[in-house]
Amino acid sequence: MTDNIHKQAAARGLRPAWLIACGAALALAGAGAAAQNGTVWGSYETPFAASSPWNSRPVNPTFGEFVIPKSDYYPSIAEGAWSTGVFPAGSGDAPVTVVGLPNSKGVWDPDAGVYRTVDIPRWPEGVIPASAADGHADIVDPLAGIVHSFYKLRQSEGQWMAAQYAWTRLDGRGWGDPAHYFQGARAAAVPTSGGLMRKHEIDDGRPLYRHALAMSLTYNALSANPTYVFPATSADRDAASTNTGQIPEGALVMLPPEFDVATIRTPAVRKVAETLKTYGAYVVDRNRGTPYVIYVENGSGFNLHRGGWNAVAASDLDRIRQGLRQVVAVDGWVDGDDRPIEPERNLNLLSMRGPWSRQSGTVSGNFETWAQALVFAPAAASTVMVNSSGRSLHPVAWAIPAAGQAYRLRAIATGGARLRLQLRDKASGATLFDSKELNNDEVADFVWPGGAVTPVVTAIAGAGGASTVRGELLRTGE
């Protein structure tokens, strides 16, 4: 095939840079943008951007017919063992190193694809993971602009340990993208703070929560094919073999406009019902035996069954179960500032995760997840590293590159580093596309070739000082 390949300086400016510090890379995000309504987006109390799916609402949604079935228990809106806490980190908090659970290889980092220890620069006092097996906890660091999300977090003899770690930008989408596909501890790859009913919202006097909620479904409601849809980038591992319902993770479920919220007799549930009519709830993971669970922040005091079983609240929750429907189409979206938006779906495909092999030079680069870049320490001579594993393109179902589609690769580099992408035929090894070496902000346009291909990414360090390199691979021509 013949590719129309060219290099040019991109007309648009660089996106905000990430400061790469020695030994760690921290995103220096802003403290959040204040909206006209006083909301500070990207903050501890109101995480993620106004345009995030969590903070946006659909216009004139169209609904599917599937009804969430009954199961072993009544539906639930609850904090507790399977929910999560959200803990703010401050400038005075000390760093903590989180290690893997006993007899493990380390903390699993699905973004990097490695087991490792995790150094958190600011760890607040009073972190209490949820008590059930999932052991969820999210730490929000406004200074770094990061939400740290943990799975099976616990402390033993003063040492913090966890099974899994992932992170997301506090001012970002709150969902994964094809390059940084796992951004939180829930199965849908979202942080446990996403969509959470927060303790400061419970009794704020508003008629509804001003964001979409986070919901869990059980096996008989969740879909086996597909197991997840946009904006989710993952699902429970055995979903394809165990689910028997029709709603995939990542789906938005809502109460249709005709649902009569006045029939809900419990005030706390009525506020949730109003939210489900306006924003809905995203399905983020699976539970055992409960038709749906809506997650509430631990420490909120929210309890529908205080003092014993509340039959009225249980009946209200089941009425909501009968009314909920999956959103299958919309006329549009409105963000948290009441502005019409188009949800961002053309997201970066290219990750700099390893494994990398050093072809020349003396100092290897390392993938820094917080920078989403390959980071090189200063060295007198340039280093060349190659990744031919195929893991630079994660197979997110709704973002797999399509043959015949036009794409643009852009290099984002510092310190004189360069980026190169080649696509090789899997069977013959023939090179189908070669971007050649791209300097910072140079681009290469091409059409995705047909057949099975293997991506080969080459990173070339700058000589003399420290350098970093990553890439942005987006669809074009639409």
TrEMBL record:
Secretion signal span: 1-35
Keywords: Signal
Descriptive protein name: Atrophin-1 multi-domain protein
